[in-house]
């Protein structure tokens, strides 16, 4: 059934994602890894728990532990962006550097999946934590915590339904390119299918990044995915508030993906809306001077397998706001990033990777632009 396949794919993407500051990204390292974990989760969900060798069981509940250990090493040339390639700090005098080396293992994570048969269908659970605490500390942080009832209902914290998870660009560093929606939120979601390859979902979610808003966010999405081509659209509506002024928060995301030849992948994402900044990697202000801050964002990615062990790719992202967002001494309306990366599948579970990241931010007051260059290397062991 498409819903079960979709559920397995979403869980696989949430565990392997290597992109995310708000939480991720996005985070599949290679398509081979994603396929392997998807098969593992599908097996967990489809086989009688009492007859599954190697899985831990408590009564009728089957449990599966997953996650990875990841070590990142990076060097910033012009501006110190920290453990994540955070383009918003480029240009700030306080982050200027003649070269800064850094390393972290805080992206490492662990998760637990459960499945329990019931009269309502299989009841699934997910609890996932990583070590990306605030202030550069290695503290446990909640990523996902949700309950799945049968093939249709999800209750708890998970990726927002507005996010194009299936076409999210791959990166080594934690953020990924700007220009795309990325958030994990508490929600109630209903998912169903039109046929073999088409599904739709609606959700009621907590507002992202706006503690002043008293209203929930409503989303709807529809997706066609036959394994070679993906086409998806999503809508969002809510409200944002600043200084006692409330504005509408609206969003539209259109996404597409194609595998035009063996080992090749091309995908695009376009997002537009008003007061939508907190949903995007760039985190632009939703309301400026009592007005909704309109934004357009997009990403483009091309990837190619080189044999069985190598995968390379390049992605471009951009965000363009109508009104400026201040991040210190400067205020931006435009952000751009380029990610060029390579992944080497050393073993079935060990991946080595390298990436060059270019970021650019403008100064909305003077019209000047600032750029930052970064290189990053990582080793990731999945389990």
Looking at this protein, list some descriptive labels.
two-stranded antiparallel ribbon; mainly beta; disordered N terminus; 383 residues; 20 strands; globular; Porin; 16-stranded antiparallel beta barrel
Describe this structure in words.
The protein is mainly beta and 383 residues long. It has a single domain (2-382), classed as Porin. It has two helices and 20 strands. It has helices at 2-16, 31-46; strands spanning 56-58, 61-76, 100-104, 109-116, 123-132, 138-149, 153-159, 184-193, 198-205, 217-225, 229-242, 245-258, 264-274, 287-288, 291-292, 294-306, 310-326, 331-345, 350-362, 369-382. The protein has a 16-stranded antiparallel beta barrel. Strand 12 and strand 13 form a beta hairpin. Helix 1 (2-16) crosses helix 2 (31-46). It is globular, with a radius of gyration of 20 Å. Mean pLDDT is 87; it is low at 1-30 and 40-54.
The structural class is mainly beta
CATH-defined fold name: Porin
List the strand order in the largest sheet: 2-4-5-6-7-8-9-10-11-12-13-16-17-18-19-20
Provide the low-confidence segments as ranges: 1-30, 40-54
The total tally of domains equals 1
CATH architecture: Beta Barrel
Average pLDDT rating = 87
Q: Globular, elongated, flat, extended or rod-shaped: what is the shape?
A: globular
């Amino acid at each position: 059934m498409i819903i079960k396949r979709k559920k397995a794919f979403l869980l696989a993407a949430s565990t392997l994602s290597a992109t995310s500051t708000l939480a991720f990204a996005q985070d599949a390292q290679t398509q081979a890894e994603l396929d392997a974990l998807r098969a593992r989760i599908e097996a967990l969900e489809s086989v009688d728990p009492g007859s599954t060798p190697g899985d831990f069981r408590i009564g009728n509940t089957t449990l599966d532990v997953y996650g990875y250990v990841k070590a990142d090493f990076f060097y910033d040339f012009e501006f110190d962006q920290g453990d994540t390639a955070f383009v918003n700090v480029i240009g700030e005098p306080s982050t200027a550097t003649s070269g800064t080396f850094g390393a972290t293992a805080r992206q490492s994570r662990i998760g637990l999946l459960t499945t329990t048969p019931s009269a309502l269908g299989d009841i699934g659970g997910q609890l996932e934590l990583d070590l990306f605490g605030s202030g550069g500390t290695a503290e446990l942080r909640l990523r996902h915590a949700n309950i799945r009832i049968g093939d249709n209902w999800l209750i708890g914290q998970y990726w927002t339904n507005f996010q194009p998870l299936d076409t999210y660009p791959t990166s080594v560093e934690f953020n990924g390119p700007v220009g795309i929606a990325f958030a994990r939120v508490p929600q109630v979601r209903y998912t169903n299918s039109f046929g073999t390859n088409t599904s739709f979902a609606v959700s009621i979610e907590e507002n992202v990044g706006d503690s002043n808003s008293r209203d929930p966010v409503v989303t709807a999405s529809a997706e066609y995915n036959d394994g070679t081509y993906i086409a998806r659209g999503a809508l969002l509506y809510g409200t944002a508030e600043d200084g006692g002024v409330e504005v509408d928060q609206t969003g539209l995301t259109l996404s597409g993906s194609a595998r035009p030849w063996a080992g090749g992948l091309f995908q695009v994402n376009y997002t537009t809306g008003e007061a939508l900044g907190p949903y995007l990697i760039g985190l632009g202000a939703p309301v400026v001077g009592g007005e909704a801050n309109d934004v357009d964002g997009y990403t483009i990615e091309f990837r190619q397998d080189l044999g069985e062990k190598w995968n390379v790719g390049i992605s471009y992202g951009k965000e363009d706001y109508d009104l400026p967002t201040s991040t210190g001494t400067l205020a931006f309306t435009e952000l751009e990033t380029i990610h060029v990366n390579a992944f080497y599948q050393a073993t079935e579970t060990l991946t080595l990777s390298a990436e060059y990241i270019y970021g650019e931010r403008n100064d909305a007051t003077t019209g000047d632009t600032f750029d930052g260059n970064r290189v990053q290397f990582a080793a990731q062991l999945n389990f």
